[in-house]
Queue: 4 jobs
Job 1
Amino acid sequence: MTNNGLVSVESRFGVTETIDRLVETITLAGLRVFARIDHAAGAHEIGAPLRPTELLIFGHSKGGTPLMQDKQIAGIDLPIKALAWEDEQGTVWLSYNDAQWLAERHGLGDASRDAVATIAASMKKVVAAAAGVDQS
């Protein structure tokens, strides 16, 4: 499902396992993990409830640099982020920004068109692997 530039794919796994699988998939693809943030743990530290929610920040200079060379402000949305979260019904989702939406948001042009297409295809592939679904 896509909503306001966000793509959300239902995962067959829990939040932690989904992110673990994403880390494995992107590492094997040669991407770098910059940070993993457990938002639910942060909420717990202040005594606030929050369903399982983890953010992974990752990428590769080959993917992001062309976007920033085209429009440097695109760096506000880089590196790439993916959020695994559990909804009110207990369904786990893996959400990320649609690459084409990012291109439109920043007014990217021909200079970064191939990089945007590569990011879009790569995200579809790694998210499907992490979530255990067929995204063809």
Job 2
Amino acid sequence: MNILAHKPLAKNLEFDSDMMWVELIDGRKLGIPLAYFPRLLNATSEQRQLYEMSGGGSGLHWDGIDEDINVENLLMGIGDRTHLHSERLAA
């Protein structure tokens, strides 16, 4: 059973010193610690603002820091999975 009745889509994105705030088209606002995404945590404020929304808001992309985030994964509490992929390659 899918717990999401409708695909979550982002309509706006903001940052403060340690959080990313994603406003969804249905009115919800998600607060995600930047620590979940080390590339965003280590990016400059200017780099964080240079994002693109893809798929009508289903994805967030930062070309300059090579970061891609699936909005649906944010609702499920899934953070950066890059380190998992790197660990598998090293094993």
Job 3
Amino acid sequence: MYRPLKYYSDEVMKNMNNRAKEIMSFMYPPVTMYEDNGYIGIEADLPGFARDDIKVTLEKNAIVIRAEREIKPEGTVFENQRPDKVFKRMALPLEVDTEQDFVAKYNDGVLSLKIPVKNVKTVKIE
């Protein structure tokens, strides 16, 4: 292949990889949100992030998940699309009870949250 043409095609591919990484930062992490017995449950996949690098905040009626890591690959890197930071803000479908603390656990790359819902009572059926 003609050398300048190869150079330009390589530069275009690098630019596309950088754009793909930026898009993944907005789409990542994949999340499941559900209601269970007076709680909003959220599970987010964050493999490769350390527990101390993940920050979760409750802002009015939205939850924000931020995470940042430093990726240091060894050797020659041909392609790297793994995001080094993520930011996800999700509106919560129900009003949360801010008087109660909510629980967050991180196990095997999955962040699990249980947020209490305001004015929701679960009725036990006998």
Job 4
Amino acid sequence: MNKVLPGPVRLDKWLWAARFYKTRALAVDEIGKGRVQINGQDAKPSREVRVGDLLRLRQGPVEREVQVLALSHVRGPAPVAQTLYAETPESSAAREKAAEARRLAPEPAQTITQGRPTKQDRRRLSEWDRWSASADPD
């Protein structure tokens, strides 16, 4: 089903096969933006990935560090794709901590106590701005 290769595979193709990004084009964009490193160095999409390499990548707010366990150039089902890598314990702990912090963060809408200003409120504000901006020199 998922063809495992003995030799190296392009980074963009491996990230796509491991299901980190939905398309190879997205993988190339993220690599180009410097959001993917191999063994601590910025990489190009054509860089070859080998078994044992340590990859650091960002997916939106989530930063992950994974070790390459197997190579594949074919995108298969998610359970098979998850066998291609192992996330480091530090990475998974940091990801869970960030998820918990996001879950416990206050809802931005709850900080608004009065709600949106009405049309009448906006008119009062614009009237106040107009008069407060003009200062009489004494």
